[in-house]
Design a protein that fits this description.
- The chain has about 300 residues and is α+β, with helices and mostly antiparallel strands.
- It has one domain: 2,3-Dihydroxybiphenyl 1,2-Dioxygenase, domain 1 (Roll), CATH 3.10.180.
- Helices cover about 20% and strands about 35% of the residues.
- The chain has six helices and 16 strands.
- The strands form two sheets. The protein has an eight-stranded mixed sheet. An eight-stranded mixed sheet has the order 6-7-8-5-9-12-11-10, with helices on one face.
- Helix 3 packs antiparallel against helix 4.
- The model has no long low-confidence stretch (mean pLDDT about 95).
Amino acid sequence: MSGLHHVTAIAGDPARNVDFYTRVLGLRLVKKTVNYDDPGTYHLYFGDEAGSPGTILTFFPWGHAPQGRGGVGLTHETSYRVPETALGYWAHRFVELGVTHEAIAKRFGESVLTFTDPDGLSLALVGVAGAETEAAWAGSNVPAENAIRGFHGATLLLDDAKATAGVLGVLGYDEVARDGTTTRFKARGSSVGGIIDIREAKGFLPGRMGRGSVHHLAFRAADDQEQADMRRRLVDEHRMHVTEQIDRNYFRSMYFKEPGGIIFEIATDQPGFAIDEPADKLGETLALPPHLEGRRAEIEAHLVPLKEAA
């Protein structure tokens, strides 16, 4: 199974981030942990009930980070799947809750509602036929029939699509359609998180990463062997500089920059988010990896309690 595993973005205030993604979008806070490379800051994971691959949007909430700027060499937009009949509900909800959004438009024959989160991250809801039959998180204040079903995909803004298209082929994607300057790629055997659109913008201003930017896109590997096979092909066939495997506790990762400059990750489906918390208690306590557990008191002292954050 190919497709997106997760998307990681940069936010500002962590409490505002949690409020928007749980209360406004109705996602589950699947994991409350820290950035392993910067344990004085949170790493927050939002997704479906189980934290399934293809549903997880994660955040580094760095309050000191400058505002990002969209442009070439960054992910332009992250999109979610919802039932086709749910877009009217979401448009009304966004008006009611003061969420910045645009009118519903058509792309590749699908209805799309674009919006931004409080940090300016570009997002969209895509009405997908049949999505109402897919599982949804029932523990939120969004009615199940309208709930988000996981990622639809992501849009990359690049100067040239050709080299990146070859890399996407290794990651399990094939070109399926074109619309003007945008080329659509679809994952083999996957619906959730299965779309990558590349919008070519030759000569456009380069992006600058910061608050409201996607930091990296992570693609699925079923296991260590599939991940190793992808790495070998990326190195041998595309001359990519791919890291060795890094243990992220809930998955194992490899990283590289695709030809357009966007950070890509390959993440294993296993072991998942229930290895250190019961499935029905995900995200309720601060989860630390074994190598940081001895520093729990120090780390908790530096983190702003989410319920008290401004």
